[in-house]
Structures are given as structure tokens and as C-alpha cells.
């Protein structure tokens, strides 16, 4: 059997985000234009240059039993919760080969994090300093390793085809989804749970990002701080949470009569080779990824109706992305409704690509582009159709969408999806 | 002052409940930590460290392997507490 180039579809979605504890609540809050950013109430926050973040709407420890939660870093807790939702949404319960009628050897997990278990690392370092070596938790390494969320989801659903964790900062979640598509296209797996998770609302990462001058310091107004494409944008708002999809070969999904949200065509990849943290201002590197996407998939640019933009609300990055879209897609850009959902969710770093994939799948499924909030004065350099303030209906017929994710280090990942 | 056998079992039950979520009254002498109480090899280290602090004993890593059941741990602690 030639298993290559098999069509891949999305049959389940799951998320826990600053907007809601599941994908449905998150989606409804997006359509309502809500912000998940809020002031931090922890004592340590008062000393920081940034005193707010888009924290999870539902604490993961309210969902997971305590004996399980205490052995998982917060990033793995988010990942497991979103994975279980996606798994159930795809029609499965429990472990493959046991409760779920899925061949465990043909089931994979690709779950990424940009930073890994940083809160576990910092907390256990405090234990070491304050209480001594004997008190350092034996769970520390399995909790802090960046592949821990993927490994724990693999354990939970019994996935044996492979468990992977691509790391590319804020592109990690999208790279995970792209890797999962390849696993199915090349015949290694029939079903893959894929996405991203992040949990680094902690004083060290916040101080570090703030000192990079990458974050908005609008401490007086958290809900309006993330404002992609607005003239007053001044940096991203840190978010936390996870988003995962269940990807499945179209054949496998058809055989079991699965509900299909959309097709996922594949990924385009590139690297800027420009600067470790600054975006390449002309969008040259992003354009390479978009051209790779066109070579790597059968995406038809004239079908593109929607883009879930990376757009993190930084002065240079937001515009570089639009320049690349214009360069590669020309006049077709004018028919694309562009949404910057990070205006509402904040930036989930390695989780962002997972949440964006969920949002893009739902946008195609419901034929509705979510809004970009806080655009009070559209940057005059924006030469594209931004969905501002309210959601917008997408056209009927076959339409396609992009989900863009770019990360520190110059990593560019562009995913393409299409209605079925 | 040395803890009684009953006090050691009650203390271990609280520790196992904290770590593995097992109800205290299910932590009885014949139970295996791994097979009956959801305490894997990593969590066993947590049980040991908590027991050391609570009962004032030292349990070297080489001796932890011998503690298969709650009763084994009770015997060990009873024999070694100061």
C-alpha cells in the first residue's frame, strides 16, 4: 500500500485557555470579543515591570485529581485536559485498544511546549535552597522535561506510534500540528493528537520577556493591552493554556463515520536567519514558509478566505506577516478575512499554534472568522482586511484558511486547512 | 518517644493519602505500595522522605527496595526509630 500523501482531516478539538476551560467556551468568548487578560494577584507580581497576564480561565487543579495533578507540571496539566477534550470530541474514550476502538500502534501524540516545565524547575530550585537536596521531588525531571506533556498524553490514551515534542518557541504548537500531519501522510499513524501547551506565568519568565521589551506594559488596562494592528500596540500579552486537535487520515475517519471539522492540507516551514529574537522586518523568511506551503500542499490560493494571523501585537512583527502574505498571495490577500485572536487569548507561546489550529478549524467549520479586538486606530501601514471588533461570516463553497505561527529564533510555520 | 505500631500505620496512611489519594483506611499492613496503593517507584521516594521526617528515621536507598508492603515499612520504622 502506498500510504504517502493521504488526506488528513480534523475530527476533534480541545482547548483550555484564558477565555474558557474548553474549546466551546473559548470559541464563544472569541466570537463575543472578550479578553482573557487580567491583573495578577500574586504578591510577587507587584514588583514586576508587567503586572498582568492572560491566565487560564479554569484552574487545571479543579479538573484533575490531586494525586495526578501533583505529578504534572502545569503545562502538562493543560495539555492533558485539552487532549482529553479533543479525544472525547473525536468520539473516543479511554485508552486505545482498550476502551477506544483504535489500534494503539497507529495512534500518535505530538504535543509541544515552547519553554517546558519552567515553574516546576523554579519551584524545585526553591525547595533545594530552602529545604535541602533530600526534599527535591523525585518527580522533578519527568515534570520539567519539555516532552512531558506529550509523554503524559501518550500514556493517557495509550498512543504507541510515537510521541514527539518539536521545540521552536512560539511556533512550537504549529510545528507539532505540521509534524502530526506528516506522520499520517507518510503512513506512520492513522490518528494523531497534536497541538501545544504552555504555562510560564511566573516572575522569572515575565521579568525576562519584559526586559527584552517584547511585552506590553499597559498595566493599567490589561484587557486592551493586546492590540494587534492598532497604532498603539506595544508588545504581546503573556497567556497560558493549551489547544489540541485530533488529526486523522480521511480514510480512517470515513470508515468510522467521524464528524469532520475540516481538512488539514499541511505545513510550510522556514527560518529567518536574521536575529535571535527580532522579526525580519520585510517578511522575507515568512514568505519562504508560505511558498513552501504552496509547494508542499495542494492549497489553491484563490480559495483562501481566512487567516488566523500570528499577530502578537508587536510593532514590527504584525506588519512583517502582512508583507509576506501580500508578497506571496498578491491580490488574493484582499479576499482573506484576517483575525488576530491573540488580541483576546494573549500569546500562549508554545501553546499558541495549538489554540490557533483549533480556532481555524472552528472558523472553517462554522464559516465564521473571529474578531480582532482593541483595534481603535488601524495602523495605516496595514494593507489587508482585518476582521475588527465583530466576527464575520465567511463565504460558502470550498474555502481555505491559513494559521500562522512564528517563534523567537526565526522559526516560521504556516498551516493550511480547507472546508470539506 | 517511639511511635507505636498503630501510630506508624496511621502516619503512613496519611502520607500515602497525600501522595496517591488512597483513603486512609485502605492503607493496611498487607497492602503492596506498588500493586495496591498506586505508589510507583518515584512516589515511593516521596513516601520514604516523608516517613523519615515524621518518624525520625533514616531509610537509605538500598533499604527502600525491601519495603514492598506497608507492613515492611512499619517493621523497618519500628526497628530503626530512635
Automatic annotation (TrEMBL), chain A:
Residues 5-419 form the Ketosynthase family 3 (KS3) domain. Its EC number is 2.3.1.179. GO terms for cellular component: cytosol. The keyword Lipid metabolism applies. Involved in the type II fatty acid elongation cycle. Catalyzes the elongation of a wide range of acyl-ACP by the addition of two carbons from malonyl-ACP to an acyl acceptor. Can efficiently catalyze the conversion of palmitoleoyl-ACP (cis-hexadec-9-enoyl-ACP) to cis-vaccenoyl-ACP (cis-octadec-11-enoyl-ACP), an essential step in the thermal regulation of fatty acid composition. Belongs to the thiolase-like superfamily. Beta-ketoacyl-ACP synthases family. This is 3-oxoacyl-[acyl-carrier-protein] synthase 2. It comes from Streptomyces zhaozhouensis.
Automatic annotation (TrEMBL), chain B:
One of its GO terms (molecular function) is acyl carrier activity. Residues 3-81 form the Carrier domain. Keywords: Cytoplasm, Fatty acid biosynthesis, Fatty acid metabolism, Lipid biosynthesis, Lipid metabolism, Phosphopantetheine, Phosphoprotein. It is found in: Cytoplasm. Its main location: cytoplasm. The keyword Lipid biosynthesis applies. The keyword Disulfide bond does not apply. It holds the Pfam family PP-binding. PROSITE patterns: CARRIER. GO terms for cellular component: cytosol; membrane. It comes from the Bacteria. 4'-phosphopantetheine is transferred from CoA to a specific serine of apo-ACP by acpS. Gene3D superfamilies: ACP-like. Carrier of the growing fatty acid chain in fatty acid biosynthesis. Belongs to the acyl carrier protein (ACP) family. This is Acyl carrier protein. It comes from Streptomyces zhaozhouensis. The gene is acpP.
Amino acid at each position: 500500500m502506498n500510504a504517502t500523501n493521504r488526506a488528513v482531516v480534523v475530527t476533534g478539538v480541545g482547548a483550555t485557555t484564558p477565555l474558557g476551560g474548553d474549546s466551546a467556551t473559548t470559541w464563544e468568548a472569541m466570537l463575543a470579543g472578550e479578553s482573557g487578560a487580567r491583573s495578577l494577584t500574586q504578591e510577587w507580581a507587584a514588583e514586576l515591570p508587567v503586572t498582568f497576564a492572560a491566565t487560564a480561565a479554569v484552574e487545571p487543579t479543579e479538573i484533575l485529581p490531586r494525586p495526578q495533578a501533583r505529578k504534572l507540571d502545569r503545562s502538562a496539566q493543560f495539555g492533558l485536559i485539552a487532549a482529553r477534550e479533543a479525544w472525547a470530541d473525536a468520539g473516543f474514550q479511554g485508552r486505545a485498544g482498550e476502551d477506544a476502538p483504535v489500534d494503539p500502534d497507529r495512534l500518535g501524540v505530538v504535543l509541544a511546549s515552547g519553554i517546558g516545565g519552567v515553574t516546576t524547575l523554579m519551584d524545585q530550585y526553591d525547595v533545594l535552597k530552602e529545604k535541602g537536596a533530600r526534599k527535591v521531588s523525585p518527580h522533578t525531571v519527568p515534570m520539567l522535561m519539555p516532552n512531558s506533556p506529550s509523554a503524559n498524553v501518550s500514556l493517557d490514551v495509550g498512543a504507541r506510534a510515537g510521541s514527539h515534542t518539536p521545540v521552536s518557541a512560539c511556533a512550537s504548537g504549529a510545528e507539532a500540528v505540521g509534524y502530526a500531519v506528516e506522520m499520517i501522510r507518510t503512513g506512520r499513524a492513522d490518528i494523531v493528537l497534536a497541538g501545544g501547551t504552555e504555562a510560564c506565568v511566573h516572575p522569572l519568565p515575565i521579568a525576562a520577556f519584559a526586559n527584552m521589551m517584547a511585552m506590553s506594559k499597559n498595566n493599567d488596562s490589561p484587557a486592551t493591552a493586546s492590540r494587534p494592528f492598532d497604532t498603539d500596540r506595544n508588545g504581546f500579552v503573556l497567556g497560558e493554556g493549551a489547544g489540541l486537535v485530533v488529526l486523522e487520515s480521511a480514510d480512517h475517519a470515513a470508515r468510522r463515520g467521524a464528524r469532520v471539522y475540516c481538512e488539514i492540507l499541511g505545513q510550510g516551514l522556514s527560518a529567518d536567519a536574521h536575529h535571535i529574537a527580532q522579526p525580519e522586518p520585510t517578511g522575507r523568511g515568512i514568505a519562504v514558509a508560505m511558498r513552501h506551503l504552496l509547494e508542499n500542499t495542494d492549497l489553491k490560493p484563490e480559495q483562501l478566505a481566512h487567516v488566523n494571523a500570528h499577530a502578537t501585537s508587536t510593532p514590527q512583527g504584525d506588519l512583517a506577516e502582512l508583507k509576506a502574505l501580500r508578497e506571496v498571495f498578491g491580490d488574493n490577500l484582499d479576499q482573506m478575512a484576517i483575525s488576530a485572536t491573540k488580541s483576546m487569548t494573549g500569546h500562549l507561546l508554545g501553546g499558541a499554534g495549538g489554540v490557533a489550529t483549533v480556532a481555524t478549524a472552528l472558523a472553517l467549520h462554522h464559516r465564521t472568522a473571529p474578531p480582532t479586538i482593541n483595534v481603535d486606530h488601524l495602523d495605516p501601514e496595514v494593507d489587508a482586511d482585518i476582521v475588527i471588533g465583530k466576527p464575520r461570516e465567511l463565504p460558502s463553497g470550498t474555502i481555505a484558511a491559513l494559521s500562522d505561527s512564528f517563534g523567537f529564533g526565526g522559526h516560521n510555520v504556516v498551516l493550511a486547512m480547507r472546508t470539506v | 518517644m517511639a511511635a507505636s505500631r498503630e501510630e506508624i500505620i496511621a502516619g503512613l496512611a496519611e502520607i500515602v493519602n497525600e501522595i496517591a489519594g488512597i483513603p486512609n483506611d485502605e492503607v493496611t499492613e498487607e497492602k503492596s505500595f506498588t500493586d495496591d496503593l498506586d505508589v510507583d517507584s518515584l512516589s515511593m521516594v516521596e513516601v520514604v522522605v516523608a516517613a523519615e521526617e515524621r518518624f525520625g528515621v533514616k531509610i537509605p536507598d538500598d533499604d527502600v527496595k525491601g519495603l514492598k508492603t506497608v507492613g515492611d515499612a512499619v517493621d523497618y520504622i519500628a526497628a530503626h526509630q530512635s
